Amino acid sequence: xxxxxxxxxxxxxxxxxxxxxxxxxxxxxxxxxxxxxxxxxxxxxxxxxxxxxxxxxxxxxxxxxxxxxxxxxxxxxxxxxxxxxxxxxxx
Length: 91
What we know:
Elements: E1 6-9, H1 31-34, E2 60-66, E3 84-88
Antiparallel strand pairs: 1-2, 2-3
């Protein structure tokens, strides 16, 4: 993970701090290597180790969603639909 891509909150709505690297992207990314194009009804899965980049408060329930880019290069019609609930164990 090369930038703060997610909003991670605990049940008390406290946002977990991002502590990873912050890489800026080029204005003209390579569409064949930097993007995944999905058709209608298609899905993809990718596993990330978020605990190395976000300061989690230990085991428990967390809510994760994508973070809208500040520069507006990506617009979500409903960013809250990207939110998932996870349970962290064994930290």
